Amino acid sequence: MQIRCALVGMPGSGKSTVGRQLAHRAGVPFIDLDHRLERTIGTTIRHFFEVEGEARFRDLESQLLAEVAQQPGGLVLSTGGGAVLRPENREVLRQFGNVLYLRASPEEIYKRVKHDKTRPLLQGGNPLEKLRELHAQRDPLYRETAHYVIETGRPSVSTLVNMVMMQLEMAPGAAAALPAAQA
Ligand SMILES: Nc1ncnc2c1ncn2[C@@H]1O[C@H](COP(=O)(O)OP(=O)(O)OP(=O)(O)O)[C@@H](O)[C@H]1O
Ligand SMILES: O=C(O)C1=C[C@@H](O)[C@@H](O)[C@H](O)C1
Ligand SMILES: [Mg+2]
């Protein structure tokens, strides 16, 4: 079975880490939307946020997501934590293939990312409070976008990769999620 899926979830939920290993195991290409975006803008997302602002970042993110989603065939796509904020992005993601929500509590995420300075939305102030706010705002959007929710609190990354593979193998729409020419 050729895997074609997108991972959504909070910043620090493991989309990049799990996505990369999943693509490797499944033998399909891997695209990390944040990395693709940094390549396009030629600087870090954090710097871009500071200089150009979040709205401009969201415009580019939507544009790039629509482009990347056109790539046919097997693919694991890790999105940015805020990719589900715009309704048009949620629609693009659902049309793209199976969408999995990597769910983790704000407290679990805080433990993982508290020493990481790359996430612009978690700098300054009280990062745990910010994670709680983001979670309250976005959890319904991740759920609305995703076909499956994977709890990531306890399992290791490699166990999560197995869980996602099993979930996709059982998915009734697995083949149907591929564009007609690929199915
Ligand atoms: N299941 C897990 N258990 C423990 N640590 C994890 C797990 N998944 C990811 N991590 C760790 O959490 C950190 C954040 O993971 P990662 O960068 O993959 O998150 P992300 O969802 O891509 O975040 P962002 O939206 O900011 O890009 C990394 O240090 C990673 O090693
Ligand atoms: O949660 C967010 O809104 C973000 C998460 C990251 O993946 C990046 O896309 C960026 O830092 C914004
Ligand atoms: Mg990431």
From TrEMBL:
One of its GO terms (cellular component) is cytosol. It comes from the Bacteria. Pathway: Metabolic intermediate biosynthesis; chorismate biosynthesis; chorismate from D-erythrose 4-phosphate and phosphoenolpyruvate: step 5/7. Binds 1 Mg(2+) ion per subunit. Its cofactor is Mg(2+). One of its GO terms (molecular function) is magnesium ion binding. It catalyses: shikimate + ATP = 3-phosphoshikimate + ADP + H(+). This is Shikimate kinase.
